[in-house]
Predict the structure of Enoyl reductase (ER) domain-containing protein.
Amino acid sequence: MWMQQGLQACVWRGRVWESLGKCYLTTCRAVILPRFGGPEVLEVREDVALPELGASEVLVRTHAIGVNPLDLRMRGGYGRSLFEPLLPLVIGRDVSGEVMQLGSSVQHFQIGQQVFGALQPTATQGTYSNYAILNEEQLAQKPDNVSHIEAAAIPFAALTAWRALRSTAQIKKGQKVLVMGGGGAVGLSAIQLARSAECYVACTCGKQSMERVKEAGAEEAIDYTTPNINLQFKDRFDVVLDTIGLPETEAAGTKLLQRGGHYLTLQGETVALADVYGLVAGGAAAAAVLFRKQVQYRQQYGIDYWWTIMRTDAEALEEIARLIKNGQLRVPVGHILPLEEAAEAHRVIERKKAHGKVVLEVKDSIATPS
Ligand SMILES: NC(=O)c1ccc[n+]([C@@H]2O[C@H](COP(=O)([O-])OP(=O)(O)OC[C@H]3O[C@@H](n4cnc5c(N)ncnc54)[C@H](OP(=O)(O)O)[C@@H]3O)[C@@H](O)[C@H]2O)c1
C-alpha cells in the first residue's frame, strides 16, 4: 500500500518502505481479537498487516474510535458463524480521522480531509487501529463544530436510528414516535432524528438519562422501571423503535401502536440463530421466525413488525453530518480512553460506568512529512 509523496518518510508505529520516491505503509498498530472471550482477550499489536486499498476505498489515519455494544458482543462470540473462521481480526465500527490515501476511483475525498464514518456490522477488518480502511460511501466530511472524539461517537448509532426511522418506517412530520431506550447512543440519535423530521417524540429511559433525553428533544420520558409502563402513555404511537428488544419491551411496544403503525426492534434473531444452526439453516430459521411474528402482529394489532439492522448509507451520513453542523444531533461522550486501553473501555461499558459513549483516542499515529 503506497502513500502520497507529500506524506512519505516516517509513519509512527506503521511499517513503511520506500520505492521510486513513494512510500508504502504495510502495517498498522491495532487491537486484535485473537479468540472470543472477555475483555482480557483483546491484544494490542504493532505489526498488523494492512490489506491492499481497493479502488473505492480510503485509508484513514484514525484520531478517535467510538466503542459500540456490537464490538463487545463480537468479542464475546456474537456472529461467530461469520467471524470465527476469520480470527484473528480487528474489531470496531466507528471512526473519525484524516484521509491519508485514496483508491484509484475515489472521487469525493482529498488527502488531508477530516472525515468520520462507520463500517457495516459484517465488516471483517475493523477500526480499532491507527489506520482504518473504509469505502468512500462509508465516510463523510467531519463537521468543524465537533471534535474527532465527538464525531466518532455518532455514525454507527445515528445510521442505525436512520435505517429504522427514516428508511424503514419513513417517519413524517406530525407523527408520534416512541423510542424505548432513549438514553443510549441509538436512542438519543433516534430522538434527535425524529425531532428534526418534526415528529412528536416520547421515550423510555433510566432515571439518570431523564435530563439528557429531554435536552435531545423528547417531549415525554418515562422511567423504564415504572410498573405497567403502558398506562403511563396517554396516546398511541405511529412508530415504536425498541432499542432494548426484551420480551417485555416488545410486549409493551407493540401494544402502544395504533393500527397501521410500525414496531422496529434492534434485537432481531438472525445472527443468534445463525450462530446456533449455521449461516444457511440459521438464516432460514430466522426468516421463518420473522414471518411468523409479522403475521401474528398484523392479525393481533394491525401493525408492521420489523427487525432493524444498521446499514451504511452515504446519503444518510451526509444528512447526519448536516444535522451535526446545524447543532441538531449529538451523542454525549461519557469516557475517553487511549486505543491501547480498549479492553478497559469494554470493562467500563460492562460495568455500566460510562454514562455516555465510550471513545478510544489515538494519540500517536502522527505521520511526519519529510
Ligand atoms: N441491529 C443493529 O444493527 C444495531 C445497531 C446498533 C445497536 N444495536 C443494539 O441496540 C442496543 C442499543 O445500542 P446503543 O449503542 O444505543 O447502546 P448504549 O449506548 O449502550 O445504550 C444502551 C441504553 O439502554 C438503556 N436501557 C437498558 N435497559 C433498558 C430498558 N429496559 N428500557 C429502556 N432503556 C434501557 C440504558 O439506558 P439508561 O442509561 O437510561 O439506563 C442504556 O443507556 C444494543 O443492544 C446494541 O447492541 C443494534
Remarks:
- The domain at 157-307 is CATH 3.40.50.720 (Rossmann fold).
- The longest helix spans residues 279-301.
- The pocket of NAP is lined by residues 68-70, 121, 157, 160, 180-181, 183-187, 204-206, 209, 224, 243-244, 249, 266, 308-310 (CB under 6 Å).
- The longest strand covers residues 57-67.
